[in-house]
Specification:
The complex is a heterodimer. Chain A is α/β, with parallel strands linked by helices. Chain A folds into three domains: 115 residues, no CATH class; 213 residues, no CATH class; 139 residues, no CATH class. Helices cover 50% and strands 11% of the residues of chain A. Chain A contains 22 helices and 16 strands. In chain A, helix 12 packs across helix 15 and helix 13 packs across helix 21. The longest helix of chain A has 22 residues. Chain A starts with a helix and ends in a 10-residue tail after the last helix. Chain B starts with 8 loop residues before the first strand and ends in a 7-residue tail after the last helix. In chain B, strands 3-2-1-4-5-8-9-10 form an eight-stranded mixed β-sheet, sandwiched between helices. A two-stranded antiparallel ribbon of chain B has the order 6-7. Chain B has two domains: 155 residues, NAD(P)-binding Rossmann-like Domain (Rossmann fold, 3-Layer(aba) Sandwich); 143 residues, N-(1-d-carboxylethyl)-l-norvaline Dehydrogenase, domain 2. Chain B is α/β, with parallel strands linked by helices. Classes of the chains: A alpha/beta, B alpha/beta. Chains A and B meet through strand 10 and helix 15 of A and helix 4 of B.
């Protein structure tokens, strides 16, 4: 039986596409991605051509590039031992021995073939029929999970009226401006990343808000969930195989991302690279693929066809995180880097999905996506016309940023510098655009109490205190009430955002609701209450949820709480090497 | 990278250093718009103006105003600057209690993004006449470094490059603090051995502080750090040394600044550094001691004794 299940699973996660009987005819006003399939071969060709130029002009000898790819492929295929290995392992092994004797022409040929195979594997697919189906059916399917009793009723009204899933997700921020900008240039969404559900949630939010769909790179491991896999394959996601470490592959990905933005495909990149293991809002952003969008702007400008690129700092905020337990465990093991690819977390377990969504249905707006003020690649705000604005509100010419002595020029070092600055700006925006959820605020107050009551004990010692630290409900009410007041003042001064419940609910009711939210989904009980005494049952999950408040800890603490708040804010610098 | 030439150049600030930059550019064959509040004689290829718009016609702009005027100057420049401009400042100051760098102020107040800081033991006469000497341009943008080298350097005037602009700005500003403590110790009559200890430990202190703010430690060992500190130690007559001497004579911060021909902000840097260091959880004993002397809670000699009696640890 397990064998059959595993085969079925394998079948489901293979790229599945629907047959096309007639070619898709694009309508006016369709988002650019609707026409993607007709351009795909051309895009792959362009990626391969650019890489050939890069390889020819690179200071690094071709032999190094080829050797690196060959050795990396041998290593990867040896550990994979699958059909792909059967097909290619022998070839790469023999190539490793021959590299030294090959001519430059031969080396370039092999590199071209390899990069072409890689680019084809990366390139996605977009099927407008699947998109149309998804817009109508997915909300109802999810609603079915939330409220099994509503399935029949929903089916009768497919595509009409609000559905239960709408209550799950709140969207806020610059939505009307983004609708205008989508027509003026290319949108590049750059959100915080805490769950594999992020891309699904964001995709759904865009759909609901009448914003165009985006293309994005999804780790191949995400395709392990069969339902998600089907939609990803057909809704423009391109596949990123993190097992391949060769520079050539990274260049294929970057070039692909660049060509896509250049051609006007609205895109999504997670600048943090991977899900935040600690639950903290990302501070150090390398940008990675998002940096390609800066190059895309330069290339269009140099070609004489400037096309604005708008970066949209976005925060995705959850009351509960589907994979919270696995992520925080990984962080604490200081193995965040070693286990870069987690394949066995809650995301790949359908029963966890069902449990998660049923839990969410009991919480008010458990996910909030906030779209911040969009900026051009150089950090300037933009107006509805898509023009960049200087500090005095004056429209400025963004092409100027890629000129030198009056001429537009390409310069990778310059663009890398712009990208670093943009990373800093996004990190700052994340801090002010984060929407603090009630679970996170309560977790912070409780964790601060834990730190305060256990002086001199290190973090790991505190995490072992399961059920050992308690606080009276009255004491908690006072602490939470004062912290909420400070948070609300901080929101008024633009320092952070609060969820509707955090903004307007009194401490007592808020705590009761958070108790409900926390109970039942995560495996261990997080907090319990008996006879007016609240006990901290699982400090690890409290830590995970409270980590979202680290940047604000000192600003929302009273003088008495300050030492504990300082200790908490130092977690941002790392705990015994983890980050 | 193409071997493009700087087409035109602007200098904001008609003080000694601003004029020296303008003359350096004339020396290397460029045309210059110099913005100055005071009247200065125009010479061939040099236009003196009171209008920032004229300066903004240039591609490369040097900002050479005292750090106490940087914010207002940057705001005024913000009306004219665009993305095409390359902006380089020569300020040795940090702005406000958060110790913002001048490049940050320029990037916030203007649309210019390609900014840099020219620093190191570069005297005005060295720049003007292209005498043997050197400095460093800190910028993340290769075109800024190339433009500055083209305009300023000479056969024996060497301009090094680094992309650690934060390190250059912090080194440059914090060497001012070391120069202040040097003048201070000199006035108290300490000899070369004591002064060397003070400078060496001072450098370790400012490096630690700079690294905590995100700078690269190596930058502090370069032109903007050690290079500039040595110029102070070898006796260039910079205001910070004179300021330290006046303070050691027991003058009030205002009087000391007046005596030294410096701005009173220069006196306050010690307290600002000490406070920021405390927030960051790092030790800055020299900044702490100077701050206490300025505030009158420690005598000049008491401060030095306090520093020398600290517990000795591994270097």
């Amino acid at each position: 039986m397990p064998k059959v299940t595993s085969r079925l699973r394998q079948m489901l996660i293979k790229p599945m596409r629907l047959p096309h009987l007639t070619p898709h005819v694009a309508n006016e006003g369709d988002p650019p991605v609707f026409g993607f399939n007709s351009e795909r071969d051309d895009i792959v060709r362009e990626v391969v051509q650019r890489l050939q130029i890069k390889l020819k002009t690179d200071a690094r000898p071709l032999e190094y590039a080829l050797n690196e790819v060959a050795l990396d492929e041998v290593r990867r295929l040896e550990s994979q031992r699958d059909d792909e290995a059967k097909l290619y392992l022998g070839k790469w092994r023999s190539l490793v021995k021959r590299v030294g004797k090959m001519t430059d022409g031969d080396k370039l040929d092999v590199l071209r073939e390899t990069s072409e195979r890689m680019a084809k594997d990366v390139a996605g697919n977009f099927d407008p029929r699947v998109y149309s189906f998804a817009t109508r059916a997915v909300p109802h399917a999810l609603s079915g999970i939330l409220k099994p009793s509503s399935i029949l009723q929903d089916a009768a009204h497919l595509g009409r009226g609000p559905v239960a899933v709408d209550d799950l997700l709140r969207t806020e921020g610059e939505i009307p401006l983004l609708r205008d900008l989508a027509k003026k240039g290319t949108l590049v969404f750059v959100p915080t990343h805490s769950s594999n559900l992020d891309s699904v949630a964001l995709g759904y939010a865009l759909m609901r808000e009448n914003l165009p769909p985006v293309v994005y790179g999804a780790g191949k491991n995400l395709f392990s969930n069969p339902i998600v896999s089907f939609f990803m394959h057909n809704l423009g996601a391109y596949r990123v195989d993190r097992r391949i470490r060769a520079q050539l592959y990274k260049d294929v990905l970057k070039t692909y991302a660049c060509v896509m933005v250049e051609r006007g495909y609205h895109s999504l990149f997670f600048p943090g690279g991977t899900r935040s293991r600690s639950g903290m809002v990302e501070r150090r952003l390398k940008l990675g693929l998002a940096g390609s969008a800066v190059e895309a702007f330069s290339r269009n400008a140099v070609r004489g066809t400037p096309r604005p690129v708008f970066f949209v700092p976005t925060t995705i905020n959850y009351s509960l995180v589907l994979e919270g337990e696995t992520l925080v465990a990984d962080w604490l093991k200081e193995a965040g880097r070693a286990r870069y690819i987690i394949e066995d977390d809650e995301f790949s377990q359908l029963d966890r999905w069902v449990a998660f969504f049923r839990k969410l249905a009991q919480i008010e707006a458990p996910c909030v996506i906030r779209f911040g003020q969009p900026v051009d690649p150089f950090g300037n705000p933009v107006n509805r016309e898509g023009q960049s604005l200087g500090p005095h509100g004056r429209a400025i010419d963004a092409v100027g940023y890629v000129t030198r002595d009056g001429k537009t020029v390409l310069d990778p070092r310059r663009d890398a510098a712009y990208t670093r600055d943009l990373g800093q700006l996004l990190a700052d925006r994340y801090e002010t655009e984060t929407v603090l959820m009630s679970t996170q605020v309560v977790a912070h107050v409780l964790f601060r109490i834990l730190v305060d009551k256990t002086p001199g004990i290190d973090l790991f010692g505190r995490l072992r205190l399961r059920g050992d630290v308690s606080v009276t409900r009255e004491e908690l009410r006072a602490d939470l009430g004062a912290t909420l007041d400070k948070l609300r003042a901080l929101e008024l001064s633009g320092g952070v955002r609060l969820s509707a419940m955090t903004r307007s609910t009194g401490p007592d009711e808020l705590f009761t609701r958070v108790m409900t939210a926390f109970s039942g989904y995560h495996e261990r009980t997080i907090i319990s209450e008996t006879n007016g005494v609240v006990t901290l049952e699982d400090p690890t999950m409290l830590l995970y949820y409270q980590n979202r408040l680290i940047a604000y800890a000192e600003r929302i603490a009273s003088d008495v709480q300050m030492p504990a708040a300082r200790e908490i804010s130092r977690f941002a610098l790392g705990i015994g090497g983890a980050s | 990278m193409s071997a493009a030439r700087v087409r035109s150049l602007g200098v904001v600030g008609g003080g000694g250093f601003g004029q020296a930059l303008a003359h350096a550019a004339l020396r290397t064959g460029h045309r210059v718009h110099l913005w100055s509040r005071r009247e200065l004689p125009a010479v061939e290829r040099l236009t003196v103006t009171h209008d920032l718009a004229a300066v903004a016609t240039a591609d490369l702009i040097f900002v050479a105003v005292p750090s106490s005027h940087v914010v207002e100057t940057a705001k005024a420049l913000g009306e004219h600057l665009e993305g095409r401009h390359l902006v380089v400042h020569v300020s040795r100051g940090l702005v406000g209690d958060r110790l913002d760098t001048v490049s940050k102020v320029l990037r916030t107040q203007t649309a210019a993004r390609r900014v840099g800081c020219l620093a190191g033991p570069l005297g005005a006469d060295t720049l003007r006449d292209g005498l043997p000497g050197g400095g460093v341009i800190g910028t993340a943008f290769p075109e800024v470094a190339a433009a500055v080298c083209e305009v300023v350097s000479g056969p024996s005037l060497r301009i090094y490059e680094t992309d650690d602009v934060l390190g250059v700005e912090l080194s440059s500003a914090l060497v001012g603090l070391l120069a202040l403590s040097l003048g201070f110790a000199q006035e108290l009559g300490f000899g070369p051995g004591t002064l060397s200890v003070l400078m060496t430990r001072g450098l370790a202190e400012v490096t630690r502080f700079g690294v905590a703010l995100g700078a690269d430690a190596r930058t502090f060992s370069g032109m903007a750090g050690v290079g500039d500190m040595m110029a102070a130690a070898f006796g260039d007559t910079r205001p910070e040394v004179l300021l330290g001497r006046s303070l050691a004579r027991g003058r009030s911060p205002e009087d000391a600044a007046r005596e030294a021909g410096a701005y009173v902000e220069g006196v306050q840097i010690a307290r600002r550094v000490a406070s920021r260091a405390k927030q960051l959880g790092i030790e800055t004993p020299i900044a702490d001691a100077i701050a206490q002397v300025v505030e009158g809670t420690l005598t000049p000699r008491g401060a030095l004794e306090h520093l020398m009696q600290r517990k000795v640890r591994r270097e």
